[in-house]
Design brief:
InterPro entries: Aromatic_deC (IPR010977), PyrdxlP-dep_de-COase (IPR002129), PyrdxlP-dep_Trfase (IPR015424), PyrdxlP-dep_Trfase_major (IPR015421), PyrdxlP-dep_Trfase_small (IPR015422). GO terms for molecular function: aromatic-L-amino-acid decarboxylase activity; lysine decarboxylase activity; pyridoxal phosphate binding. Belongs to the group II decarboxylase family. Its cofactor is pyridoxal 5'-phosphate. It is an enzyme of class 4 (lyase). This protein starts with 10 loop residues before the first helix and ends with a helix. 42% of the residues are buried. Helix 4 packs across helix 13. The mean pLDDT is 96. The protein contains 16 helices and eleven strands. It folds into two domains: 267 residues, 3-Layer(aba) Sandwich (Aspartate Aminotransferase, domain 2); 119 residues, Aspartate Aminotransferase, domain 1, CATH 3.90.1150.170. It is α/β, with parallel strands linked by helices. It is globular, with a radius of gyration of 25 Å. Bound molecules: pyridoxal-5'-phosphate.
């Protein structure tokens, strides 16, 4: 069994084994002609059920054959130009190379004595990101598992900053008074975080958005006033720079003004829009981000990085101290005096992947402009897609894209019942998924069902968009035709 351990004597076996796996994936990527096979849960479950985990095959080739059957054949392939559903990007090769290196060396980024250079590389990437944001020299940050964790940590810092010098039961009583302001289309991790942080059920105040799906700052100002008047504490405003549903960017400079005026922590959730930090022509769309107290970035969304790769950045390094605990077995206090850099002092996680290496390899091979160019391309594509949709009488499209998302709904001329139109759109999404020809997402707007393209693949063309719109219309028409038959 020791021959399976990766070490000095097995380096050759490692090379062969991993190469064999890579060759399978390469062959798969080269030949996938659809983003999905359309396999059903019922068809796939028994194949996985029947495998006896207590009877190993002892042979890598046989296990890879089996993997083809239980996973590779029917996986959802984000690199396919007709995968248009969620915030998943095709990944860049330098990052995948980084992934292979980081899992083989297996550094853990909690302490210097488990990572050495890895710690410095992560710190340099944090500094690089902060420079792009426009934060000053006091800024800092840490890599996290994803945007949800980044948002949680940001709100933890905001909570602690909102009531300096308090502790114990007094603190938890005052938790009831804390309020977070976020737009009605902000990410659900804001509410989850509030719950985890022990805030009251009504702690997250939902601020309406305009037709452009951006937070209405007049409403925000009104709610902040009300908060003060009621003797409550405006703990934080979460501005979303790229909403999950629409890619809309809240008005950051106006929100920064209000945060300053009311003494609220400004968090910018740029999980999606962070790609603009590398953009050559659209960076201005997130101007004002430099006034935030904290920023969430998901490199695994708009920097074309494999999951996971994310960070929380803060204007003032000292605020990360709210997450600092010292343990004799790991990061004793004396190490701070000895200036030993232990990233665990800033993190909610302990053992932590060296995800930063993927971004490092990407920047060293392609450069930031390369990433920015890819993101600019998908934003341009969304603009073209919007024109197609706006000119297409079969469709209603919600808002001109600020990033790379299109939300639309099939509206047959002959049908006026909105509930029937809802059903036709829901049916079309399901039928398309079952066909495997394309994958699209869905959401609700104004109580009605809409469909969504999240465009993150520069290989997707306007022809792909047109073709998928035709497929959707075809499925929806089929549903309505059958529905007429049922009625008659
Ligand atoms: C995706 C997303 C998140 C959550 O990020 P994960 O990496 O999926 O945890 C948070 N906020 C916004 C706006 C997002 O789009």
């Amino acid at each position: 069994m020791r021959s399976h351990l990766l070490n000095d004597t097995t380096a050759e076996r490692y090379r062969r084994s991993v190469t064999e796996g890579i060759e399978r994936v390469a062959a798969k990527l080269a030949t996938t002609d659809r983003p999905f096979t359309g396999v059903t849960v019922d068809a796939l479950s028994p194949r996985i059920e029947q495998i006896d985990l207590d009877k190993p095959l002892h042979d890598t080739t046989a296990v890879l054959d089996e993997l083809e059957d239980v996973y590779l054949r029917d996986a959802i392939y984000f690199h396919h130009p007709r995968y248009l559903a969620h915030l998943n990007c095709p990944v860049v090769i330098p990052a995948v190379l980084g992934e292979a290196v980081l899992s083989a060396v297996n550094s853990s980024l909690d302490t210097w004595d488990q990572s050495a250079g890895g710690t410095l590389i992560e710190r340099k990437l944090v500094d690089w990101t902060n420079e792009r944001i426009g934060f000053g020299p006091a800024a800092d940050g840490v890599f996290t598992s994803g945007g949800s964790q980044s948002n949680l940590q940001a709100l933890l810092l905001a909570r602690e900053e909102a009531k300096p010098g308090q502790g114990g039961s007094e603190a938890s009583a005052s938790h009831a008074k804390l309020r977070i302001f976020a737009s009605e289309v902000s990410h659900f991790s804001v509410k989850k975080s509030a719950k985890l942080l022990g805030l009251s059920q009504d702690s997250v105040v939902s601020i309406p958005v305009g037709n452009d799906k951006r937070m209405q700052t007049v409403a925000l100002a009104r709610e902040l006033e009300r908060c003060k008047r009621d003797g409550l504490v405006p703990m934080a405003v979460v501005a979303t720079a790229g909403t999950t549903d629409f890619g809309s960017i809240d008005p950051l400079p106006e929100i920064a003004e209000l945060c300053e005026q009311f003494g609220a922590w400004m968090h910018v959730d740029a999980a999606y829009g962070c790609g603009l930090l590398a953009s050559l022509k659209n960076r201005h769309r997130i101007d004002g981000i430099e006034r935030a107290d904290s920023v969430t970035v998901d490199y695994h969304k708009s920097f074309f990085q494999p999951v996971s790769s994310s960070a929380l950045l803060v204007r003032d390094a000292a605020t990360l101290g709210h997450a600092t605990y010292h343990a004799e077995y790991l990061n004793p206090r004396r190490m701070v005096q000895e200036r030993i850099p232990n990233q665990v002092d800033k993190s909610l996680q302990t053992t932590r992947r060296f995800d930063a290496l993927k971004l490092w390899m990407t920047l060293r091979v392609m450069g930031a402009d390369g990433i920015g160019q890819l993101f600019d391309e998908v934003c341009d594509l969304a603009g073209q897609g919007w024109k197609l949709l706006a000119a297409d009488p079969r469709y209603d499209v919600v808002v001109e894209p600020s990033l790379s998302t299109l939300v639309f709904r099939y509206i047959p001329a002959a049908v006026t019942d909105p509930a029937e139109i809802d059903r036709a759109n829901l049916y079309a999404r399901k039928a398309l998924f079952a066909s495997g020809d394309a994958v699209v997402a869905g959401t609700k707007v104004g109580g009605r069902h809409f469909l969504k393209f999240t465009l993150l693949n520069p290989e997707t063309t306007t022809d792909d968009i047109s073709a998928v719109l035709d497929l959707i219309a075809g499925h929806a028409e089929q549903y309505l035709g059958e529905s007429l038959d049922r009625a008659s």
